User: Which sequence fits this backbone?
């Protein structure tokens, strides 16, 4: 797991200059190939650890890059009215993929216990989403905003018209295209011939810019420090520690954990994202997450489950807290990308 995360870290760092250089579309096609290469090495390792580690690192590199480029590509192609919804759907598909992987692991442990295919198939099936990404991106157009950044204005307008299914002379299309032109022109006037060092200095020396940068960074750091990825990875071990017996039972509980995350994400996007607001939702769900984890910690410390004993009522409550954490963590993970650090947020903080 650490090797995969190390690859993701490196992939995130190089994704930005690569996608600005060759474009969103070809960058995603390239990351799909990188992931496929890493998955092939993992599946073909056949018990040898060296190719498994290298494959995990390579696949993580592609996953990290794709995770950075995908939201950019979606937001640059999405219409204004549903841009937030489509960005949220990105997180929905992430938790859906996690849920599917949980149930694949459960099915393999149920039907092929102790056989090589039990771990080879889950490793190999990772290549299917990457293959779909590669094939589907070949059928997609480049981002109109990236084309405009390259001064390919006619091609940008043609792609935008195709994405909106409107003629190039339509008033809505002309208005949106003019917004892209105005935004890029403003960025170029603001940046001018400033170097990367000058822009970085301006980011951290001007109070308003510094506040926005710190809010963005802190939100994403705190999002990861909730432990959601750790629980995703070690959910079977956690369920065993809470008193559930048998690998199959813990994997089944992990599958239910994935279902809870998907259902919670759908409910929040449909019914609560706009009505409750970003800031209030973040505050209340963070408190609820903390309370759920505190209960689990206190239970394991004060009355840990005894070996070969039935799970007590307090233990079942701890299991419920895991599922509640899954429901709340979706909101904490989903909201920071949807919450632009604008003037109002800066003043409140």
Assistant:
């Amino acid at each position: 797991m650490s090797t995969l995360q190390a690859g993701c870290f490196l992939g995130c760092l190089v994704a930005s200059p690569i996608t600005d250089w060759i474009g969103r579309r070809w960058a995603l096609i390239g990351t799909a190939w990188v992931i496929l290469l890493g998955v092939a090495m993992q599946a073909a390792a056949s018990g040898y650890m060296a190719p498994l580690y290298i494959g995990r690192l390579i696949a993580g590199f592609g996953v990290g890059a794709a995770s950075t480029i995908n939201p950019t590509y979606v937001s640059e192609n999405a219409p204004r009215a549903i841009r937030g919804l489509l960005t949220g759907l990105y997180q929905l598909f992430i938790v859906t993929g996690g849920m599917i992987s949980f149930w694949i692991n459960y099915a393999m442990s149920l039907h092929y216990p102790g056989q090589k295919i039990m771990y080879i198939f889950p490793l190999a099936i990772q290549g299917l989403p990457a293959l779909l990404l590669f094939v589907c991106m070949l059928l997609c157009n480049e981002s109109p905003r990236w084309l405009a950044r390259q001064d390919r204005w006619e091609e940008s307008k043609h792609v935008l018209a195709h994405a909106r299914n409107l003629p190039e002379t339509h008033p809505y299309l002309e208005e949106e295209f003019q917004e892209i032109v105005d935004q890029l022109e403003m960025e170029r006037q603001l940046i001018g011939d400033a170097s990367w060092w000058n822009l970085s200095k301006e980011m951290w020396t001007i109070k308003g810019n510094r506040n926005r940068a710190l809010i963005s960074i802190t939100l994403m750091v705190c999002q990861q420090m909730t432990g959601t990825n750790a629980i995703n990875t070690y959910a079977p071990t956690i369920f065993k520690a809470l008193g559930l017996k048998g690998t199959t039972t813990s994997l089944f509980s992990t599958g239910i954990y994935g279902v809870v995350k998907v259902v919670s994400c759908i409910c929040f996007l449909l019914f609560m994202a706009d009505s409750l607001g970003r800031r209030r939702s973040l505050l209340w769900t963070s408190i609820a997450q903390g309370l759920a984890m505190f209960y689990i910690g206190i239970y394991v410390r004060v009355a840990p489950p005894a070996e070969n004993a039935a799970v007590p009522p307090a233990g079942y409550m701890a299991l419920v807290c895991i599922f509640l954490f899954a429901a709340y963590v979706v909101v904490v993970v989903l909201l920071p990308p949807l919450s632009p650090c604008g003037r109002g947020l800066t003043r409140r903080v």
Q: What stands out?
A: The first helix runs from residue 2 to 22.
